[in-house]
Amino acid sequence: MTKTVKRVRIAHLYPELLNLYGDRGNLLALVRRLALRGFEAEVRRIGVGDAFRPDEHDLVFLGGGQDYEQAILMADLLAHKAAAIREAVEDDRAFLCICGGYQLMGRYYRTAEGRQLDFVGALDLWTVGGEKRLIGNTAYRSDLLEQAGKDPWIVGFENHSGRTFLGAGVKPLATVVRGHGNNGDDGTEGAAYRNVFGTYSHGSVLPKNPGFADLVLERALARRYGEDGPLAPLDDAYERLAQTAALRALSVDRSRRNG
Amino acid sequence: MPGRGGIRTGIAVAAGGTILRGLRLIKRGATTLPGKVALGLDPDLLRSLSKDVPVIAVTGTNGKTTTTRMLCAILRGLGWSVVTNRSGANLSTGLATTLLENRRRLRRPRTAAVLEIDEAAFRRVAAGLSPRVVVVTNLFRDQLDRYGELATTMQFLAEGLDACDARLVTDADDSLCVSLGRGREERTLYYGFDPAAMLPPDAVRGTEATHCLFCGAHYVYAGRTYGHLGDFACPGCGYRRPASSVSCREILEEDAHGSRAVFVRGDEAVEADVPVPGRYNLYNALAAAAAAVAFGESFAASVAQLPTTDVGFGRMELIQAGDRRIRLILVKNPAGFDQAVEFLARATDAGAALFVLNDGIADGTDVSWIWDADLERLADQGRVPPIVGASGQRVHDMALRLVYAGVPSDRLRTSGDAYGLMRECLAACPPGSCLYVLPTYTAMLALRARLASDYGLAGFWE
Prior knowledge:
The complex is a heterodimer. By secondary structure, chain A is of the alpha/beta class.
């Protein structure tokens, strides 16, 4: 009798439009870390005009896009996918949303001129356009990761003009130690709600932060197969070197909560 | 009558010239400082210095330096005396330095200035330089940390074009470049691949500019060359690849030294001998030939000068290192990295490869882009060289990228000392083989300076 390979279905939403600097690395990380544990990852590309059904995916990935690219998908997103995304979120499907994709999951975006654009509304957060872009290397520390028994540090690179604010319905993913985070003001970075994780980190974020990658995967596997233990550890020597070098470049001491 | 501007320019020129001579005396590559000081004294210096000379400006994201060099070779071959910023000092300060340095030559007859200009700097210098021809090579995602978004870069280029009345020479196969020609049709000359010479659309992985700039519909491609370049058409609004006036109709031969191809203009077909390999260099050759045509030169005579191009300087530069070779291939964004990796995957002489990733301002401080290039193709095609090195300021990011790409750890060497690792990789190369070095910009400058002293190459300001 052959053992059935467990499959994880990953949806890549708008792969041709939300694929800014390094988003591909996040998918590579998800697929690689599943494969090394004997799971089979299936990545489905879902673009403008393609159906998105909330019950067909274990993990949904949304990357970032440039403004003109995001403008192209807005009508399709709001008319044909937003309700299904909200349903999938409430049904505890795992999501990883980066930068523009993170903003899109919120309630709305208000431009610097005061014009308000409705977004998906799956997360209780909103974004306000800013003048100066928030750009640079970042180091964040996540209590959420620590509580899950993971390395709490997330290193990456942020590049956004929008300022995101969190409502009472979501928790921050992490605390800013270096960089700007959600809005450059309140010290929060990213958001977490049910099995949804949003962050401004490019980098790509997952390869260098394997603890974060595994947390996202564990949530997807728990929902699909009811496996609630941690994933088997991997030899993350190169991953750890890259993360440590990034922390060192920002003069962050990983043993201190505030770096 | 010398007005205030004349006196101010005189002082600026004198100050810049003094600094230039001082730096030359101590053998420093004075590529920007003299211009910086002089521009501070006279902000309108570029206009005064360039008023007697026809200027050709070369901008765009990839291929500026190579196109500039090809165009210089063409014009020199046709009897022009050419002033150019060879060192890639392509901001206003570097341009001012170049013009200052050559201010006497600029007044001589049959002299032209061929200037590589940074795409963001272009809008600020276009009015002053008043170029006769502007080449926009292509628009790829590049240094998003510096420019924010590609739309911003396009806006900068449009502003520069509107500040002068130059002929625009640009790539018909690039949907972003063609948008610059829209509304400027009467002064635009397109070059590109003949759609019949393109690859089938499925043969190329295009991830940028997939949707129409004007209506948002998904482009349909009848053929592609690389990246988002190809025979695009929008089914929504009809925006499509325009006919190109200068085209590559057929590639006859490609090898490690270059390409032979048939270039056509109207019913005139000539064989082009491009002395530097890589498909993107065929585009650079088309751009240079088209620019020469827009400048008023004969098409066939221009193409005939292409073999005299001395490309070098880190762009596919081949350096003889004893009984081995080093191929330096500058990489700076996903599209260029993709092409360099494809070139490496096709090479039959690779003894080792070295990837050097820096994150200075000129490299891009965001290194995320290394994940967007298809490095996986090396392992997928069984073309991982026997030794693969990772180095640079972001050595560990580069190493992790290579591990992900399937480079086995027993082939991987990592070191923060790029030059030391380069010597180690070279020593590991069998005699007769080639070490492929893929550095980012500042890494290339540093490595090439060491190679220049090791092997007696020309310095970057010569």
